[in-house]
Design brief:
Chain B: GO terms for molecular function: molybdopterin synthase activity. The complex is a heterodimer of chains A (84) and B (149). Chain A is α+β, with helices and mostly antiparallel strands and 84 residues long. Helix content of chain A is 21%, strand content 35%. In chain B, strand 7 and strand 8 form a beta hairpin. Classes of the chains: A alpha+beta (84), B alpha+beta (149).
């Protein structure tokens, strides 16, 4: 079992009401599975399951099928970026 | 040079930093500004830029590295502001120096296109007591198709 830090940004952070959260990884989970786990652990976690929510694993953009392995430091979830 | 900062930037100083003696033949630069987004310009409006410290710099470096791999460039400078901004403020600077104009123009355009869709920044607009997060523009994602090899 290992712990992973999960961070949220922008509108998603406001809706979930947390900027940071620690969760347990029993085994490597895909990004899609981690979203499901967080949706049940966090009060307002359902917002993670909406279409268009993006993710990163240790600062690299990640897709739903990408795996969060034990040595991962930080996973982030956020809406599509709007810089520039 | 890649900078993510709250402070404003001086375009003239950034331009000079891109010049390499006896080498530079072309410099292309882009400056993005906060457009007026209120219907009534008299209305009290402001703008907040959030970023993901660490990831944003990592994303920008990856975009700049990709530009270097595609074109022969002398130097690249990207500055992006975060925090509270007002209408007409400068937000972003992208500057590229090269021997010839074609690569300078193309690399500057490429970096700006990728920055819009692949760098961790989020904009929030406020008018009076209301505020809302800016929605991503599908045109920005579409624009990346121009660069597929």
């Amino acid at each position: 079992m290992s712990k992973v830090r999960v961070v949220f940004f922008a509108s998603l952070r406001e809706r979930i009401g947390h900027s940071e959260y620690m969760t347990e990884l029993d085994a490597p989970l895909s990004i899609a599975e981690l979203k499901q786990q967080l949706a049940s652990e966090l009060d307002k976690g359902q917002a993670l399951l909406e279409k268009g929510i993006q993710a990163s694993i240790d600062f690299e953009f990640a897709r739903d099928a990408d795996l969060v392995l034990k040595d991962v430091n930080e996973v982030a979830f956020f809406p599509p970026v709007t810089g520039g | 040079m890649i900078l993510v900062q709250e402070n404003d930037f001086d375009v003239d100083a950034l331009y000079k930093s891109l010049l390499k003696a006896n080498k530079t033949g072309a410099v292309a630069m882009f400056v993005g500004l906060v457009r007026q987004f209120a219907d009534d310009p008299e209305e009290d409006s402001s703008f907040e830029l959030e970023h993901y410290p660490g990831m944003t710099e990592h994303n920008l470096q990856a975009i700049v590295n990709e530009a270097y791999s595609r074109w022969p460039l002398l130097d690249v400078c990207v500055v992006h502001r975060v925090g509270r901004l007002k209408v007409d403020d400068q937000i972003v600077f992208v500057g590229v120096s090269a021997s010839h104009r074609a690569e300078a123009f193309q690399a500057c355009d490429f970096i700006m296109d990728y920055l819009k869709s692949r760098a961790a920044f989020w904009k929030k607009e406020s008018k009076g007591n209301e505020s809302h997060w800016v929605e991503a523009n599908i045109k920005d994602e579409k624009s990346l198709e121009r660069w597929s090899k």
